[in-house]
Design a protein that fits this description.
The chain is α+β, with helices and mostly antiparallel strands. Helices cover 36% and strands 18% of the residues. Helix 14 packs antiparallel against helix 15.
Length: 746
């Protein structure tokens, strides 16, 4: 599944149950200083973290935007038109001061002639036979003068535009953009719109009246967003006056976003961000971010984090929001008191967002339940003591081999989302492939494709869209918490469901999520290439492989092509030094059969000419390198049995009443920073408090003929289950489930 076929060891794996409960899978992030994420607050606030870059806070940025947008929704008649008359006077003075009188007169005659030709047809247009050759204004070598003339022509004659050739000669002709808007708007509204765009004064507003037809308003909105989407906001307003409904479109110039570049040195000591630790239980990371964003009244994109964690797990991770501490501390504390599945703590000030470079890796504490040897002959007719002894002997050998040889560093199933009926088996990866193929319509259709075996509100809304393409009807059914789907449906309603509208819809979802789709597909390619590499060459290093000499995180500058001279001494390089590239535009590929296999795989998916740069989606995929073999650190384990009053895994009731005490105890254990690290030979405290194996005689197991089932050692067979508790550390982007597949059979 997902390309994961090979194993580091050929020995049979154990049988066991993974992720029976969220508390069985606990993950804690580790920063570059080796400190675990904790919920308890430190003694004092910290203002910096490792390698932080300063990104100044746009004070009250989101609240200001919300207030301004709300003012557009008010029904007060606060509309004001752009002072066109002033524009006329200023532009006329400029043109007469720069141009000679006869040239200015020629411009006026040219403009009147062109306007007459435009207005004589319905809808307004100019055929090639009606067009007049461009009118030359002369040669202007100074850029400032050319800019002023361009603006003056547009403000006085909005249906014309000026262009400059390589010899700095300026010419004017009919503006095709004006003709496009003129086919939908009146002459007055078209003139005002083009002048409005030319002025570009922030927060200036313009009303386009005579908008009674809804289809015309929709076309106008789409045109404005297609050509001026980054500059202008547009919104429809309706008012009932004396029983008569009147609609108009209001335009507003957007505020310029402040760049996230380093400011002057006096900002270095300023605190703009709030850092905190997120604890979540059985919840998606992105859903937890949505909850926090609503609680502190910011956009989800304002919250930064280093990585996405498992859903069915208890996890703790570092996060930051670009708001000062005094604005969010009370809100976050209120959230922690109100939510069971989300808690926050360790609030402190920072000077920048959380980045992936700040994360060393993760600490895992896992419980595998009902662990048995796969070889039935060694477990049949054995008492618990014998089974435990056999299992321990087997585990000692397996874990020593795992710590010595490592495991194949596949991307885990979590990377690809739920298994589905698509060519790759991963909906997320298929969306990424469609994006790389620039088939944005297919990408949107995949995101909005319903599950055939589910009938909840989300899938009902998706079916409505699939069958009718009615975005508004689907939005009425789609739950509001499905932020991604709602954003896509709104964008499709506004921009249409064709290729261009689908591209706009994908731009409406967070940048991090768009990256996630691409990375899911490139990760799937990587898994397939690892399998191909092992099937072709095993675990030997061969010439042409990509290798790195450094331990820890792989950097692009350290990767080189293995030459025969490098491999002359087998002690210098091993399979642990081999890396494979995640496809992108900044990586090199192996110079052997593995490299050829990459090219063949690109061709299979239609990506042989892909540059891994999608300007239309504002995505750049530089690629990366990943070790083929990874090794766990601080690996510790122990075996234990459940208490008599706790149900076995196979009969476990997942109700809240039964799991609350278990989850609360694990939460308290995490908060205190206590991770049980038992040696391979010692018992856990839970085991030490229990009666020894002779207590198993209390529950004899009867055979069908009524006799007792006796082990070869003379003790009756107990029905108690053996569980394994393990803890270890892994570098970032390494999956614990991938390690477990080397030990436990799915």
């Amino acid at each position: 599944m997902f390309g994961m076929i090979c194993f580091r060891s050929e020995s049979p794996r154990l049988k066991g149950c993974i992720k029976t409960r969220p508390s069985d899978f606990q993950v804690t992030e580790i920063n570059l200083s080796g400190k675990d994420a904790v919920l308890s607050s430190p003694d004092k606030h910290v203002s910096t973290s490792e390698t932080l870059h300063i990104i100044p806070l746009q004070q009250d940025r989101n609240i200001v935007k919300e207030d301004q947008y709300t003012s557009l929704d008010s029904h007060q008649d606060t509309r004001k038109l752009v002072p066109i008359t002033k524009d006329h006077k200023n532009s006329s003075v400029l043109l007469t001061s720069v141009l000679e009188d006869d040239i200015y007169k020629n411009i006026q005659d040219y403009a009147e002639t062109q306007r007459a030709r435009i207005n004589k047809s319905a809808p307004p247009k100019l055929d090639e036979t009606d067009r007049i050759s461009p009118l030359s204004l002369g040669i202007f070598h100074e850029k400032k003068q050319r800019t002023q003339l361009y603006s003056a022509v547009k403000r006085q004659f909005p249906h014309l535009h000026a262009v400059v050739d390589n010899d700095h000669e300026m010419k004017i002709s009919v503006d095709d953009m004006y003709l496009t808007f003129r086919s939908l708007l009146s002459e007055e509204d078209s003139d005002n719109l083009l002048r409005f765009v030319s002025r570009r004064e922030v927060n200036e507003k313009l009303d386009l009246d005579h908008m009674a037809c809804k289809s015309v308003r929709t076309d106008v909105h789409r045109l404005i967003h297609r050509h001026y989407g980054s500059l202008i906001e547009s919104k429809t307003f309706t008012r009932d006056t004396d029983g008569i409904s009147k609609s108009w479109i209001q335009l507003r110039i957007k505020e310029k976003s402040r760049g996230q570049k380093r400011k002057s040195d006096h900002t270095k000591d300023k605190i703009f961000y709030s850092g905190f630790t997120l604890w979540k239980n059985n919840l998606e990371t992105l859903d937890a971010i949505q909850i926090i964003a609503r609680a502190i009244r910011v956009q989800p994109s304002d919250i930064s984090y280093a990585g996405i964690k498992d859903k069915r797990a208890i996890t703790m991770q570092f996060m930051a929001v670009n708001q000062p501490l005094h604005r969010v501390s009370n809100l976050l504390n209120d959230l922690a008191a109100a939510q069971r599945s989300v808690k926050v703590g360790n609030l402190h000030s920072r000077t920048g967002p959380i980045t992936t470079g700040e994360l060393w890796g993760n600490r895992f504490r896992l419980i595998v339940r009902n662990v048995v040897l796969k070889d039935v002959e060694t477990t049949t007719n054995c008492c618990l003591s014998c089974r435990e002894s056999n299992l321990k002997e087997d585990l000692v050998r397996r874990i020593e081999r795992l710590k010595r040889d490592g495991f194949i560093n596949y991307f885990g199933k979590q990377r690809f989302g739920e298994l589905c009926q698509t060519p790759s088996g991963s909906l997320t990866a298929d969306v990424g492939l469609a994006m790389l193929q620039k088939d944005y319509k297919r990408a949107v259709d995949l995101i909005l494709s319903p599950d055939s075996d589910k009938d909840d509100l989300v899938n009902k809304a998706k079916r409505i869209f699939k069958e009718t393409h009615d975005c508004r009807a689907a939005l009425k059914v789609m739950p509001h918490y499905k932020v991604r789907e709602c954003a896509i449906l709104r964008a499709l309603h506004r921009h249409g469901i064709e290729q261009e509208g689908c591209c706009k819809a994908l731009l409406g979802i967070p940048h991090r999520m768009r990256q996630l789709y691409i990375h899911s597909f490139t990760s799937l390619l990587w898994n397939h290439m690892v399998t191909q590499r092992i099937l072709d060459h095993g675990f030997d290093v061969i010439p042409g492989d990509l290798i790195t000499t450094e331990a820890g995180k792989v950097t692009k500058t350290e990767v080189k092509i293995a030459s025969p001279e490098d491999l002359s001494d087998k002690l210098t390089y091993s399979i642990k030094n081999v890396v494979l590239p995640l496809p992108g535009n900044m990586v090199k590929y192996p110079e052997n059969r593995t490299g050829e296999a990459y090219l063949q795989l690109f061709k299979t998916y239609g990506l042989e000419s892909c540059q891994f740069r999608l300007n239309s989606l504002q995505l750049n995929v530089p690629g990366d390198y990943r070790r083929l073999i990874e090794t766990p650190l601080e690996f510790q384990w122990s075996l234990f049995r459940e208490d008599g009053n706790v149900s076995r895994c196979s009969e476990f009731n997942r109700g809240q009443s039964e799991t609350k005490d278990v989850e609360d105890s694990h939460e308290a254990e995490i908060n205190a920073g206590r991770w049980r690290r038992n040696s391979e030979e010692s018992l856990t405290p839970r085991e030490a408090q229990r009666p020894q194996d002779d207590s198993n005689e209390k529950r004899p197991s009867a055979l069908k003929d009524g006799s007792l089932e006796i082990c070869k050692c003379g003790i009756d067979i107990s029905e108690a289950d053996l569980n394994m508790e393990i803890s270890f550390k892994l570098p970032s982007s390494t999956y614990a489930t991938t390690l477990l597949r080397e030990l436990i059979e799915d």
